Every structure is written in C-alpha cells, then in structure tokens.
Amino acid sequence: MASTAVFGVAFVDIKGFPFGKYIPTGTNLGNIKIVHGGVSRNVCEDFANVGMPVNFVSVTDHTIIGQDVVDHLQNIGVGTDYITLIPNRGVGMWLAVMDEKGDLAGSTSQMPDLDALEAFIGAKGEEIVEKCENIILEIDMNEAIAEKVLSLAEKYNKKVYVIVGNLSIIGKRPDFLSRVDCYICNEIEAGKFFNMNLEEYTPEQMLEVVKEKSSELRVPSMVVTMGKNGAVFYDSRTGEEGHCPCVPCNLVDTTGAGDAFLSGTVMGLTKGYSLEKAVKAGTHLASATIQVEESSCPKNPKFFEQFEN
User: Fold this and answer.
1) CA distance 263 to 43
2) How far, in Å, CA of 280 to CA of 300, rounded?
3) Which residue range forms the structural domain that includes residue 57?
4) Fewest CB within a 10 Å sphere: which of 39, 72, 144, 238?
5) Three-state DSSP class for residue 266
6) Number of other CB atoms surrounding residue 172 within 10 Å
7) Average pLDDT for residues 51-75, to the nearest whole number?
8) Could you tell me if residue 232 is inside a domain?
C-alpha cells in the first residue's frame, strides 16, 4: 500500500461554541474545547483513521502540549520518526469561535517557528522523499521549504498534492502549482488564486472558470469545493471534468471538513481512482467529519470498501 509523507505543522485548536446566538462584540457563554489540529496534522489523522499509511514530517517542542501531539499521533498509527523537536514554539495555536450553527465565525493563528523544520528538511528531505510514494505539502509554510520539497519530488518522480493556507507563497509563486499533481482548494481560495470573486458562482459556472484558468496557469489538475454545492473537478491532461454533489448529513461542526475532503480525495488518487471517484471519496469523508465535534474523521478502517464495487 502506498505510503504518504505529509510535510506541514501541527496546531492545537482552542474552539468556542456559544449556547445561543453568537454576538461578535458581546460576551458569549458556551463551551470551550481544546483539541489537536492544524491542517497537515488533521490530514495525517484522517489517513490513519481509515487505515492508510502516513508519515508526518513536522516540528514540535519539548512542552507537555508538544509531547501530547506526538503521543496521540503515534497511538493512532501515524509515523512520527520525522518530527523534529525544538525548545519552544514547535506547535502552532489556532483560536476559533463557532457560531450557533456550528460554522466558523472567526479565528486567530500563531504559527510555529519554521526555521528548524526548514533545516530538518534540508538534512533529511532526500531520505524522506526517496522512501515515500506520495507527498502532501503544506505549501504556504515558506518558499524555501516548498521549493526544496518540490525539487526532491521531481528528482525522485513522486506526485505532490498541496495544502493551501493563506496563499502567501502561492501568491508570489503561482508557478509552484504547475509542479503538483492536483491542486485542491475551496471557492474562496480559488477566487484569490484566480483574482476573481467566485462565491456566487453555480457549479456549472465554476467548472468553466476552473477549466479556463487552470489551463491558463498550467495547473495539471484542480478540484474546487463549494460547500453545500459540492465540488467541481478538472484534469487538463485527460480532459476529465465534472461536478460531485455534497452528501446530506447532520451538521455538528464544520472544522476539518476541508481537510477531510482533501484527505479522502488524495487517498483515492493514491489508490488509483479516477479523479471523479477520488472526489466522491473526499466528499463522503468530509460528510463523516462534519457530523462529529473532532477536527478529523471518525475511525473507519473499512471506509474505502464502499467505493470498491
């Protein structure tokens, strides 16, 4: 079974859930929960929860919180041999406030120190990339890390899938996306990348934009999620295109839904699925995730059996 190396950072999520209607400028009584998070870490947990081999290439620290992050990943089956330790700020922090519907109302992030991770990848990156089968890269960490990982992937002929964050790196280096196998993002991120407002577009309109712009920007393959409107996908190499509707479910917490979608889609692609079938897998994994309070999907080692017929 193909192993995936995820290059990224871990966060600890502090999430607040109001009892009633959320008032942005007022005091909101509710529940506060502290959970492990961060897109890359969530993706690693998603992989492990459905029985797919994965190694986390990251940085953490010697604090109780940092050790707890590593211990949890080890306990669920994520490979942690490539997590390097630093004295402090090895783990990021994400403060999130949800509204009364369970949707994200606002957030603030504190990034970990990436200098140590950059040095670690410089020393161990070749070994890691040579051993893995596929790569997921949190591309907005910094330009040097992105360039190093992409160059190693090209050297060893490994497919790369990217996690986007604030688009700080992609904004400066859009050419990076011509070097990845598939770019998966939401409609807001796609709008920023294309310099367009796409939030009111129908799936049909979105697909036309994705086909035009991804070809223009030389992005080999692209998937754009559209919330309740599902997702559209296009592969410029094969011409495969289409729309995948969302899976109706009981919403509890949308945190981690996009991460689960990316995880499911990438896992499908690494299993040899068509882009359409992989997007369907991502849609189902996202649906399972928003029905629980955790930031990752529920444990289900038989998840992919539903797509094997």
Assistant:
1) 6
2) 17
3) 4-20+29-180+247-307
4) 238
5) helix
6) 10
7) 93
8) no
